[in-house]
Amino acid sequence: MEAISLRAPAKINLSLDVLGRREDGYHEVEMVMQTVALHDVLHLRKRSDGEIVLLCRGEGVPAGPENLVWKAAVLLKEQASLDLPGVEIVLEKNIPVAAGLAGGSTDGAAALRGLNRLWGLNYSREQLLQLGGRLGADVPFCLLGGTALARGRGEKLQPLPPAPFFHVVLAKPRVAVPTAEVYRHFRPEDREPRPDTAGLVEAIRRGDREGIRERLVNVLERVTRRLFPEVAEAGEVATAVADRLFGPGKRPVVMSGSGPTFFCLLDDEEESERLAQELTDRLPVVIKTFFWREPGERQNNQELTGEG
Length: 308
Ligand code: ATP
Prior knowledge:
Layout lengths: L2 E19 L5 E21 L4 E6 L10 H12 L6 E7 L10 H16 L6 H11 L3 H6 L2 E5 L4 E4 L7 E6 L6 H6 L12 H10 L2 H6 L2 E2 L1 H8 L1 H18 L6 E3 L6 E5 L2 H12 L4 E6 L12 E5 L1
Parallel strand pairs: 1-8, 3-4
Antiparallel strand pairs: 1-2, 1-12, 2-4, 2-5, 5-6, 7-10, 7-11, 9-10
Helix pairs in contact: 1-2, 2-3, 8-9, 9-10
The structure holds adenosine-5'-triphosphate.
Adenosine-5'-triphosphate binds next to helix 1 and helix 2.
């Protein structure tokens, strides 16, 4: 195989709970994650000179060794006992950066999967998940995709049955939010209200749409709102619009990850269009997407093309 193109889809957190601080400095989390259709695209082409070359189309993305795509390539090269060929990677960035949508992690996951094919490494899914965990806590979920419960730093995964289909509107202010800073400012009292993770998982299993909407809670939302006034304002604006269009509390607006992206789950295309239209005049970034629900390899980091 000489070249391959892959999709790298974003995720949202249907819930995010912080259970405590670990000895290694990370926080113990419990989150329900969901893949959405919004995606970056990676084009990989083999190089005979052993070099890694990365070109990024999009703003605010490092095109060097800090990029998770680059780190994925270096990690695989270090693992391999033989000399590997190089690769030229073109990354088409569509997922907003530093937005709570795991944009970097999903690119790293797609690079691992794509290079496994391009370089003929034949790593199993389990081996890739393990390598992914070394790249970043969200990378294993991005390899798995679909709907899953994540624990530990986010790397301990329990796949869940596909959640019922929702349209999703994403909306964010312009600010970029550093994940580490949000965790650093987390206080135990931010855990109010507490997510009902078990109830959310049950609602997903039952396909209970209202049960899911009622349990969308992210304990980092208070922290990010406190640290960044423009995030608090964006959340208020989006909630006011959703309440006006659909009735108070009917279509809750919740933050994903450490923010600053907010999301709202809608029943159909028409609802999604109405909300997106109204938000477009009020917030700088508004994106319509939907749950990407096929679990496993077929959907996530899906192969678009492969030249033999
Ligand atoms: P998460 O939801 O996993 O916390 P995020 O969506 O908040 O992640 P990313 O978009 O992954 O955040 O970006 C976080 C930082 O990672 C960026 O500031 C950027 O410098 C770095 N980064 C490294 N590789 C990438 C990549 N391929 N795409 C975007 N950002 C990347």
